[in-house]
From TrEMBL:
Known EC number: 7.2.2.14
Domain Cation-transporting P-type ATPase N-terminal residues, every copy: 1-57
Species whose genome carries this gene: Actinoallomurus spadix
Protein name, per record: Magnesium-transporting ATPase, P-type 1
Residue intervals passing through the bilayer: 37-55, 61-77, 211-231, 237-262, 673-692, 704-722, 734-754, 766-788
Keyword Nucleus in annotation: no
Subcellular location: Cell inner membrane
């Protein structure tokens, strides 16, 4: 009987049932636009523009409307582009399922599954829909994503495997009973919405924003009251106060941040690094300790069979034959790398593996560290064959020759990977259980080689130069791991095995980790425990893994990293997916994350100091002058021109010394920078005011035009000084786009009073003498900033590794298709990340 549906029938059902997706990752321009209008200040400005139009102040109304429109438009453009970048990333992270279609077992995108499909489940698979199991063999599912229960649940034929849960061990076949929002997973996800945890950088930006809100509130209220006491028109006082409030706030900070992240995401994609949520790019740059596996990362993952060593007087060919039988007859393409290496061995072609019939099997799991099969030979005799880690198989054997143990130790020390093979007669048994894995007779050892990658040593050196400590966590033998590390020049320090880890309590483990580089024969729970112990030292920890046994550690790490070829559960548990399993690719990603953070902080520091300084100047002038120093529309235009030039900052070059170690969002540094450099710019503004009134006797239009040119020039050109800690500043070359944008905005500001519509903006032509004085003030200001900058940073090295005071580790940043309901969360400092498909069960992608 043909299993499953035909493709034509599946397409027909899908038209009715819809895609197998809980929620689609779609970019809605309307939603993005609404987010741009959430600012209360923007709403007030829109209202103020309407009031101005009603009372006859048409010029103010037009200017405010144009400014608000351009501000919202810039924010919309950049956020919409960032949203589309996120969608593009989700499109790259597809999950597939093995499904029977047209009588064949094929791979399909999980979003294409429909009720009635017949699906095959394997260890490490995320269950793609609610499946009614029709056949099951030793299958256990981790259902903690739904129930919070940590222990896997045993399943049998007739039971239901729930969407979003993970196959911990065993194999099964099931028919799709429900898809998408109709599953138990989907009902929870659609009821919760998309609540995502904030990153530490987002928390820092939030606290920074609150600081500005408090400063703006005090200034706005004070200026409004002062203007009313000076008997200025109520509307003028209101609009001026609102303009001050808007001017003190870096309105385009979200646009700069999203532009930085979107630019970084595109660069990272070219570097073969996919970030599942844009803000995780900042986290990537914070990595200080990296735990990684060995195979495919430090080694080539081009595993070949070196030799089959018989135990005692047996033949090596029989050991190889038994190894082949324990992989699955004729399924070389679906085997793991070690099994595939057996089938590729030249000697395997001459062995009669196809004459044996498989009757039953026990799949490999990381608790037993071995697999077993029950086979019937061509003569009708039945045998149990067990293959796995030598120490695990030796423990199930009735007797192990001393020479076999010696050979295993020697091959391990040489860097080989060793698998033990053992057998025993099965009589007339028709099924196989774990209890049958005993009283075995050792057949021999299979020795594999996996040479180090040629570029692994260089990648390790790059990570070390970036301040990242690399530690190896592997299920392999400690001697093999030590040999690989020695070959690559990675100091091994101490070596801890899984048994060693189990003997240590949490405090002892925390003390042992700094002096340990290799953790060998480590199980899934132990990996997670090691990661948590390292995090307890206050360092940012990343874990790189690609198997189902890595999922717990990926959850526990600050940054979970997987690869595109990893199991579904590993990719879903990760924040970052590498398109190539290479530490060099990861080093590129870390440097890019730090580059983005550095450029974002340039804007934060510069705009805060400049805006605060300008607004202090405006506040002082409004109290001392018989007229407003700038009209509301002029303040907004000044702020918009300045912010527009800063949109080029994400493309700026970054000094090498800013990339050698992680940086922290330091609110104290920002506050100190603001209080030092903000008043400094006000001193020069007040000097300009005195010259304009006392020397040039400037009236309101000339005064406003002159200060407009001077304030725009000072706050824009200071980017060349603030963007680097080097002194003099020309030792750090800015990006071409940044330099061009800054100079173009200054030129535009200087030309504005000479345009035909200058009078409509409230400006008059600026005289040559005033322009010369303005140039002198700008040069003097920049020179003093350079001098004070040198003193400001003296004795302040780049932040040392460790969490700064504003590093909120409890607010973690895991991207998931849904948030687990509070009653279902496990106790801990943060909600756990559970493996849930990013496409298919998690989303349909942008289709």
């Amino acid at each position: 009987m043909t299993l499953g549906l035909t493709d034509a029938r599946a397409a027909e059902i899908r038209r009715t049932a819809g895609p197998n997706a809980v929620r689609s990752h779609r970019t809605s321009p309307f939603t993005v636009l609404i987010r741009q209008l959430r600012s209360p200040l923007l709403v007030l400005l829109i209202v103020a523009a309407g009031v101005s139009a009603v009372v006859g102040e048409r010029t103010d109304a037009i200017v405010i409307t144009v400014i608000v429109t351009m501000s919202v438009g810039l924010g919309f453009f950049n956020e919409y582009r960032a949203e589309r970048a996120v969608n593009a990333l989700h499109e790259r992270l597809r999950h597939r399922a093995l499904v029977h279609r047209d009588g064949r077992l094929v791979s399909r995108d999980v979003a294409d599954l429909v009720p009635g499909d017949v699906v095959e489940l394997r260890p490490g698979t995320v269950v793609p829909a609610d499946l009614r199991l029709t056949a099951a063999r030793a299958i256990e599912c981790d259902e903690s994503v739904l129930s919070g229960e940590s222990l896997p649940v045993v399943k049998g034929a007739g039971d239901t495997a729930l969407m979003g849960t993970v196959v911990a061990s065993g194999i099964a076949t099931g028919e799709v009973a429900a898809t998408g929002a109709h599953t138990a997973f989907g009902r929870i996800a659609t009821g919760l919405g998309e609540r995502q945890q904030q990153t530490a950088f987002q928390v820092g930006l939030g606290r920074f924003s609150m600081l500005l809100v408090r400063v703006a509130a005090v200034l706005t209220a004070g200026i409004f009251v002062v203007n009313l006491l000076l008997h200025r028109p109520f509307l003028d006082a209101l609009l001026f106060s609102l303009a001050i409030a808007v001017g003190i706030t870096p309105q385009l900070l979200p646009a700069v941040v999203t532009t930085s992240l979107a630019t970084g995401a595109r660069r990272l994609t070219r570097l073969k690094v996919l970030v599942k949520r844009l803000v995780a790019i900042e986290d990537l740059g914070d990595i200080e300790v990296l735990f990684t596996d060995k195979t495919g990362t430090l080694t080539q993952a081009d595993i070949t069979l070196r030799e089959a060593v018989p135990a005692g007087d047996g033949a090596g060919d029989m050991t190889l034959l038994y190894g082949l039988l324990c992989t699955g007859i004729g399924r070389a393409e679906a085997a793991d790398p070690l099994d595939a290496a057996l089938w590729r061995a030249p000697a395997a072609r001459a062995l009669p593996a196809d004459e044996y019939r498989r009757l039953d099997d026990l799949p490999f799991d990381h608790e037993r560290r071995m697999a077993s099969v029950l086979v019937e030979g061509p003569d009708g005799t039945r045998s149990i064959i067990t293959k796995g880690a030598p120490e695990a198989v030796f423990g199930r054997c009735a007797d192990v020759p001393g020479t076999a143990r010696a050979v295993a130790e020697k091959r391990f020390a040489e860097g080989g990977r060793v698998i033990a093979v053992a057998t025993r007669p099965a009589g007339d048994a028709g099924t196989l259980t774990r209890a049958d894995e005993k009283d075995l007779r050792l057949s021999g050892l299979l020795v594999f080689v996996d040479p180090p990658k040629p570029d692994a040593a260089d990648a390790l050196a790059r990570l070390a130069a970036a301040g990242v400590t690399v530690k190896i966590v592997t299920g392999d033998n400690p001697l093999v791991a030590r040999k690989v590390c020695a070959d690559l020049g990675l100091g091994t320090g101490e070596v801890l095995t899984g048994e060693d880890v189990d003997r240590l309590d949490d405090d002892d483990l925390r003390r042992a980790i700094p002096r340990t580089t290799v953790f060998a024969r480590i199980g899934p729970e132990q990996k997670a425990r090691i990661v948590r112990a390292q995090r307890a030292h206050g360092l940012d920890v990343a874990f790189l893994g690609d198997g189902v046994n890595d999922a717990l550690a990926l959850h526990a790490a600050d940054v979970g990293i997987s690869v595109d070829s990893a199991t579904d559960v590993a990719k879903d548990a990760a924040d970052v997916v590498l398109l190539e399993k290479n530490l060099g690719v990861l080093a590129d990603g870390i440097v890019e994350g730090r580059r983005i953070f550095a450029n974002t902080m340039k804007y934060v520091l510069m705009s805060t100091a400049s805006n605060v300084g300008n607004m202090f100047s405006a506040a002082a002038a409004s109290a001392l002058l018989p007229f407003l120093p700038m009209l509301p529309g002029q303040i907004l235009l000044n702020n918009l021109l300045y912010d527009t030039s800063q949109l080029a900052i994400p493309t700026d070059a970054v000094d090498e010394e800013q990339l050698v170690r992680p940086a922290r969002f330091d609110l104290k540094l920002i506050r100190r920078f603001m209080l030092v450099f903000g008043p400094l710019s006000s001193v020069f503004d007040l000097t300009m005011f005195w010259l304009l009134r006392g020397v040039f006797h400037a009236g309101p239009p000339l005064f406003r035009a002159s200060w407009f040119v001077e304030s725009l020039a000072t706050q824009t050109l200071v980017i060349f000084l603030v963007r680097t800690r080097r002194s003099p500043f020309w030792r750090s070359r800015p990006g071409v786009v940044v330099a061009s944008a800054a100079l173009a905005v200054v030129a535009a500001g200087a030309a504005l009073p000479f345009t035909p519509f200058a009078a409509d903006l409230g400006f008059s032509r600026v005289t040559g003498a005033i322009l010369a004085v303005t140039a002198g003030i700008v040069v003097a200001y920049l020179a003093l900033v350079e001098l004070i900058k040198t003193r400001f940073y003296r004795g302040r090295p780049a932040p040392a590794p460790g969490r700064g005071p504003d590093r909120h580790r409890g607010l973690h940043r895991r991207a998931a298709p849904f948030s687990v309901p509070a009653p279902l969360r496990r106790p801990g400092r943060r909600p756990p990340r559970r493996p849930a498909p990013s496409t298919g069960p998690g989303s349909a992608g942008t289709r």
